[in-house]
Structure formats: structure tokens, C-alpha cells
Design goal:
About 40% of the residues lie in helices and about 20% in strands. The chain has eleven helices and 14 strands.
Length: about 350
């Protein structure tokens, strides 16, 4: 399997084999290699997944001497068109697409442009999804995605820890999840949280609802208010900007909340007083490592799984709640972490 470095080196070898037919052959000017990031509709400053992916990629690009650029897709129907137009006009060497919803467009465009390398955040391909069912491996020559690296996170693992904390902290015995679109990363968050909460306290009631929109804080707030009216005293919100509305409903009701993706104590200060922690994915560090590996020629096709064992996911600091969380709950989280490391299947995500 050719790595990114292998493709680059092969091109140089082929150039060297061309005979020198002129005494005054011009010296070719090498093009600066570049990274392009296509963000989802929430935009470059969503204080969450898009923003931190952009920042991580940009920092690593500058460190390694790669040019950097990005665009925000205005709608979910524009992914493929924007990728095609950008590749035609800017000719990036590495293309990073942000979010599961870009999976189909990423695979299609990657097949048409084998000279570029593609990295899909929250996207993984398997026979029947991204390549024909008859294929054993989508990332093989047969599967057609030999120029694609997928970066996926163990949302279920960190959500399990958040669920254990919620189950330990609740007074009413009712906790709630306000979720975004029902896509694999979000489903892993929901499943992990429910399983973790019920592992600590089997008599809990766990409400949850999927909202088919990551960009509607008002909808998130209304759904959150509905759960709170039914007695929920902890709200978990894996729903992008929609989730910020759910967190605000917790703030207004004076109940506990748990953020998602990044440390929302830092990015959403309006809810700090009720934010116990956040189930965070270190997307900035993960994408930065990916860009550095590309620059060094060490990026390979296939799936990179970012898990609790690698400290690529984890609960954010408790901040203002550090002294308010009982030792019993902290020990329960530590025990849950040890259990996941021993047997990741306990989250029931697969």
C-alpha cells in the first residue's frame, strides 16, 4: 500500500527518468503542498467540532510548512460541488472533510482524484457503505479508497463515563439526552450515555430524543425544557448548536448539564454555573497529528480509531463543580474507565 510519501516519491522518480532533450531545460518550480478543510454548515466559529478541527489543522499546517485554506459549506447539498471546485481551482494535496454527513461526497470525490489525499472526520467506510458489498476492504485497491484516511472517535466510551456521572449525581432519578441527527457518532454518544447511567443505577429513567438538525438552538431548548418539565435534573446534549439550546434550558432551570465534543465550560461561558463537565473529543489534537503525519509522508489509508486508551476522548475538568462532586462519583468514574479499558464492549455501542 502506498503511503502519502510513497506517492510523492514515485512522482519524483518518474520525472527523473524523462530524458534531457534540451541544453536549456528550465528548472521546475516546486509547488508548496497544501491542506484544505471543508467545514460543515455550523461554520468555522461554532465553538465545537468544526472550529477545533479547523484550528488543529491550521496549526499543524503552519508547523510543517503546508499552505492552509478552508471553506464552510452553505448546505448539506453542496459538499460534493465544493470539493470538486476546490480541487480544480486550488489543487490541495490533503483534503479534510468534517463530519459524518460528508461521507458520501468524500468517497465519490476521492475516487475521482487519486492524486490527492483525503481525510474524513467522523467517517468510516465498510463494504456496502463507501464501496460495494462484495469488497472486503474499502481502503484497498479493490475498494477504491486507497487515498483516504478515516478519523473516528470512541464517543460511546466518553459518553459512558458521562452517564455514570449523571447517574451518580441525579436526585430525581431522571436524566435526559438532547441529541442531534441520528448518525453513527451521535448514536454512539446516546448509547454510551444511557448504558453508563444505567450501569450505575438500574432504576433510572433516561429520556432521549434525536433532532434532525445540528443548527437549531431554539429546538434544542424546547426539547430540553420538555424533559425538565418531566423531572430530568441532568441534561446531556450531543447536538452541536442545537445542543447549546438544551444547555441553556438547564441553566434557566438551575439543573445540571453535561457538554459535548469540547470543554464547553471554556466555549460556552453562559452555562458555566450548571456545567458539571463535558464529554470531549480531542479533535484539534487528532487532526493536527494527522496533518503532521501527512507532511512527513506517514499517512496511510484506513481507519484511525481515537479511544479512551489513547486519551483521545475523555471527560473535561469539573471546574466549578470539582468540590461539589462526591468522592463516590469520582471513584465510580475511575472504575468505569478501568472497566472500558478492560472490555470496550460494555458500552453496548456495537
Amino acid at each position: 500500500m502506498l503511503t502519502a510519501r510513497g506517492r510523492w516519491s514515485l512522482g519524483l522518480v518518474l520525472l527523473a527518468m524523462i530524458p534531457n532533450c534540451s541544453r536549456e531545460t528550465p528548472v521546475p518550480v516546486s509547488k508548496q503542498r497544501s491542506v484544505f478543510v471543508l467545514l460543515d454548515t455550523d461554520g468555522a466559529d461554532d465553538k465545537s467540532f468544526n472550529e477545533f478541527t479547523r484550528k488543529g489543522a491550521e496549526i499543524a499546517a503552519k508547523e510543517t510548512g503546508l499552505a492552509f485554506s478552508f471553506l464552510t459549506s452553505p448546505s448539506t447539498s453542496e459538499y460534493e460541488r465544493l470539493l470538486e471546485s476546490t480541487i480544480s481551482s486550488r489543487k490541495p494535496d490533503l483534503v479534510v472533510t468534517v463530519g459524518f454527513l460528508m461521507s458520501d461526497a468524500t468517497a465519490k470525490v476521492a475516487r475521482r482524484h487519486p492524486a490527492a489525499w483525503f481525510a474524513g472526520m467522523d467517517t468510516a467506510y465498510f463494504p456496502g457503505f463507501g464501496c460495494p458489498e462484495r469488497v472486503k476492504d474499502c481502503y484497498s485497491k479493490e475498494g477504491g479508497l486507497t487515498n483516504v484516511t478515516s478519523l473516528v472517535f470512541a464517543e460511546d466510551q466518553v459518553a459512558y463515563l458521562a452517564g455514570v456521572l449523571a447517574g451518580c449525581m441525579t436526585k430525581s432519578g431522571i436524566v435526559a439526552v438532547v441529541a442531534g441527527r441520528e448518525i453513527p457518532p451521535v448514536v454512539r454518544y446516546v448509547t454510551g450515555f444511557q448504558t453508563g447511567a444505567l450501569s450505575f443505577r438500574s432504576d433510572l429513567t433516561v429520556f432521549h430524543r434525536y433532532i434532525p438538525d445540528f443548527g437549531s438552538p431554539m429546538t434544542g431548548k424546547l426539547v430540553g425544557q420538555g424533559f425538565i418539565q418531566q423531572g430530568a435534573d441532568v441534561v446531556f446534549a450531543p447536538a452541536g448548536k442545537t445542543g447549546t439550546g438544551a444547555l441553556e434550558s438547564a441553566k434557566e432551570a438551575g439543573i445540571m448539564a453535561i457538554g459535548v465534543d469540547v470543554d464547553q465550560y471554556e466555549t460556552l461561558p453562559v452555562v458555566r454555573e450548571v456545567l458539571v463537565t463535558s464529554a470531549s473529543k480531542k479533535v484539534d489534537l487528532a487532526v493536527a497529528a494527522l496533518v503532521r503525519d501527512f507532511a512527513a509522508g506517514n499517512l496511510e489509508a484506513g481507519i484511525r480509531r481515537m479511544t479512551l486508551r489513547q486519551n483521545a476522548v475523555g471527560l473535561a475538568p469539573f471546574h466549578d463543580w470539582e468540590e461539589r462532586i462526591p468522592d463516590e462519583c469520582k471513584e465510580a468514574i475511575a472504575e468505569a474507565r478501568r472497566a472500558i479499558l478492560a472490555d470496550p464492549s460494555i458500552t453496548d455501542a456495537d
